[in-house]
Amino acid sequence: MSAPDQLPVPSTDPLRAAADTMRAVRDRCVWSQQIDHRALVPYLVEESAEVIDAVEAGSRDDLREELGDLLWQVLFHAEIASRDEDDPFDIDDVARVLTEKMVRRHPHVFAGEVATTPEEVLVHWNAAKAAEKRTRTSVLDGVSEHMPSLALAQKMLGRAAQVGVEAPPAVAPARTEAGLGDALLALVAEARGHGWDAERALRERLRMLRADVRAAEPPA
């Protein structure tokens, strides 16, 4: 019987150890070897959702574990990218680009600018972001259509306001599917006006509904 493959050499840097572990898995696990970026997307969506569950309804242990699972997805994508023949990059490149971006977008932390309120921080952030995205031609550029529908509506309402496009007014109870869409958009506009998170409000209400359903079910 052959000896098992050795574990990655332990590192004093836990993030480096995690990256080394990911590299070993990619090298030695036949399932991991055949996965590409596109095939990983469902797992990324699932792990992101589980982080949200841990934040909103889980324990500290749950959150620590789910953040680790989400980090594993980032490491997995970076390891796949590092082996691309045409345009390789690795987790160090990802971290480097992230650090450079965050330094640029926080001049009040790293470049002597002043921001004493969250609103002033947002001004600096938006100015830096606009400088980075000079090639964009629409306020909707960069808004992913793969966001959950209500979150997408809330995001788009904010972008629409930048160009003076108003949200639809409140409407009577919907009588058609199109009318339902108008009613939902108006509700999202109301949520945004109050500073509420429409997606979270719906998720939390659905959790209540789920609990009600389970309470009404007969014992197993």
Automatic annotation (TrEMBL):
Q: What is this protein called?
A: MazG family protein
Which SUPFAM superfamilies does UniProt cross-reference here?
all-alpha NTP pyrophosphatases
Q: Cite the GO molecular-function annotations of the record.
A: nucleoside triphosphate diphosphatase activity
What range(s) does the NTP pyrophosphohydrolase MazG-like domain occupy? 37-110
GO process annotations (BP): dATP catabolic process; dGTP catabolic process; dTTP catabolic process; dUTP catabolic process; TTP catabolic process; UTP catabolic process
